[in-house]
Design goal:
Elements (H helix, E strand, L loop, with lengths): L2 E6 L6 H11 L4 E7 L10 H12 L5 E6 L3 H7 L4 E5 L3 H17 L4 E5 L10 H9 L10 H15 L1
Parallel strand pairs: 1-2, 1-4, 2-3, 4-5
Length: about 160
Amino acid sequence: MTTAVYAGTFDPFTLGHQDVLDRARQIFDVVIVAVAADTGKKTYFDFQERVELAREVLKGIEGVEVIGFEGLLSEFVRTHGANVLIRGVRNGSDFDYETRMACVNHALNSGIQTIFFPPINGTQSISGSLVREIHRLGGDVSAFVAPCVCRALEKKRMETTL
């Protein structure tokens, strides 16, 4: 059985993330969606909210497990018996950054191989930051995220305006 890890901030989990995950599931027996606690950036949803939201989006999908993690991704991969990292790359700058990260992760754990998934279904423009910005300005993000994410975004907006 081959286990892959798909790690990210997932702030929030988008249809672009879903596309990458769906394609990874065609190759690997188990895909662990690893939600990073310490992202080095300010997130809209806190760590626990991001984990719970990813679980809600992915509920019932066979072969997928959502786990929040802290610390080095290379250690998380080792601890969970995986040897493959899944990364989505939307453009050249994503590819440059992800290539550097793949080299670092491999240096920290030589058993890790990274596989890049480019967008194939029109999701190349979707990012969590774009979704958050559209939502912040009052736009409809339903074309970019699952319905439960739309509800969570609206709930969050209501909480922050009180």
